[in-house]
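CORE FACILITY INTAKE
Project code: CF-77B
Contact: R.S. (postdoc)
Sample description: multi-component assembly, three entities in total
Requested service: structural model of the whole complex
Turnaround: standard
Below are the sequence entries exactly as provided by the requester. Do not edit them.
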Amino acid sequence: MYNAFFNLLKRDLRLAFRHKSEILNPLFFFVIVVTLFPLGISPEKQVLAEIGPGIIWVAALLASMLSLDSLFRSDFEDGTLELMLLSEYPLPILILAKIVAHWLITGFPIIIFSPLLGTVMFLSNEAIETLMITLLLGTPILSLIGAIGMALVVALKRGGMLLSLLVLPLYIPVLIFSSNAVGSSMAGLSISGQLYFLAAFLIFCLTLAPIATSAALRVSLE
Amino acid sequence: MMKAIMKFIYQFASPKHFYRLSGKIIPWFAWLAAILLIAGSIDGLFIAPVDYQQGDSYRIIFIHVPAAWMSMFIYMVMAISGAIALIWKIKLADVIASSSAPIGAAFTFLALVTGSIWGKPMWGAWWVWDARLTSELILLFLYLGYMALESAIEDPRAAARACAILAIVGVINIPIIHYSVEWWNTLHQGATVTKLDKPSIHISMLIPLLLMALGFKLYYGAVVLMRARNKVLVTEQNNRWVKEIIG
Amino acid sequence: MTNDPQTKQPQGLSVNQLSCERGYRELFNDLNFSLSPGEILHIKGENGAGKTSLLRIIAGLALPVTGEIRFNGYNCRKYRSEYNEQLAFMGHKLGIKLELTPVENIRSHCDLGKSCTRQQIMDTLKKVGLYGFEEMYCNQLSAGQKRRVALAQILLSQTQLWILDEPFTSLDVIGVELFLKIIREHVCQGGMVLLTTHQEVTLKDCTLKYLQLPDGTLSEPE
């Protein structure tokens, strides 16, 4: 079972490296969206530092959501998803491998690049540190919850818009706590409460989301 | 024993039996709902005393609060009947869930509108990012997502099962969303008056509120059964008893 | 709801009182048949008669409206993992990643079930006539060659029950013959095959049965 998990993880990573755009596009999107705000609002340091945490987090949220399509779409179209459903191994384990791979491909680069964007938005050093921690805790949650939504719409031809309707309301707690943690650390306040919440929510999603996702996939592939 | 119970439930929940029984229940629900709603409105609008802080404008809570209760209640109904349909394969539960969605969305919308009308004299603005209103808004998004998913999937059985999963995921998330919105709200605007957290509500206001709440519940019961009856006729269109009814 | 005595432990696949709807239209109703080791069942019927739906239901990918499927006496939905261990499925979508080579494809398929060595993979590829194509990406292969990769996956799955939906599509005459030979070998070793095809299947020394959809009458070739 561990072999099945790691081999599937490896396969997905290998596929991603043969399709580099899958890694780079969400990252570009993330950077571009954040860049739009100073242009649209104001380049002043005070304004940007005030809205920066929220903007970076909203951009991360949207980038993560838009990248969900690559999670199941190609496997659905060429039929490998069907074969996964017919595997003798528990489907939630295989799904988890795919979600982990997807997070490594799309979520992780965002974390690496976030200090750059934090600097551009005039966040303090502590706030940038917090930003990275919240992204580390929060983006896996986005991938896990997003997987449920993606599994529900994977068989639909135009599922993109619908996916955002399904998934974005469920992203709200992550957005609230993460961007607040970054803002609070700017102001020099304690952020342990927010981080505990994110960690608890992550563990919660880690246990339940793969099960919900596999149930949804079984329905979608019918 | 368990088998006997399950057999009874399956029989009870058979579409044919449901169709006949619901036809008898609906008038009762509808008439009782009408009586309760009229009584509650009269009591709430004319008999209940004027609030010493808000004057007469508070009287909208007799709509707003029951509507907000219903919006939560109906989502729960959808999730529970979705779970029943997934686990025990009772088709009727799917029908109830999907018939409930638009009604729930309508109640949510009503709660939002009355909340913002109530907010106008209180806060001087049509919309305030109050915790309850915001939660209600997110709940409306959840309802809209549910209905959008249902209409997007062509096969009715697959749609019902997908929606059941979505409703269960949603219902697990609602308390988390609610909690985080509440937390976010106290952080950003600790000074606003929270509308419902009054120490106690006077009995003369409680009675019309409960009358209205019960009236809303019965109204929902009547409407959901009516919608479910129509859906049953569609889903069972290949069966002989339906053909006999339609003629 | 079957009256099968549990003590008898019937070998093979048995399908009881199966009915299926698409939308609100009934495809077939009260379908009953069984398949024992060493038998081939050729499912016939016009387009839209429900052949693919039936195969997907038997594979466990779709839900029937009523009825159940038993394999060696146990219910396939309840013992999904044990059933999947004995099942190989080839659908309209082959489950082949275009960005991977045949060897990588077969390997990741084996990772979902029983593991296989590189030597086994190479031998099987040679057997299905893909010698010399092992290290090419699958997007450079022809449709027939991809079909052969899928055949190699089926061969290496070491399962008893093969469910093949239109397996001869895009294969040339030699390919079809090869496939039939492989099917015969499998059946002679106690395997079972369920297949749909519009071609006439002729196999020597094998028990071949026909199932006509939608009425579900069973017949044997004269």
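Facility notes:
- Chain B touches chain A through 29 residues (CB under 8 Å).
- The helical segments of chain B are 2-12, 15-47, 61-88, 91-123, 131-152, 156-188, 203-235, 240-246.
Invoice: internal transfer
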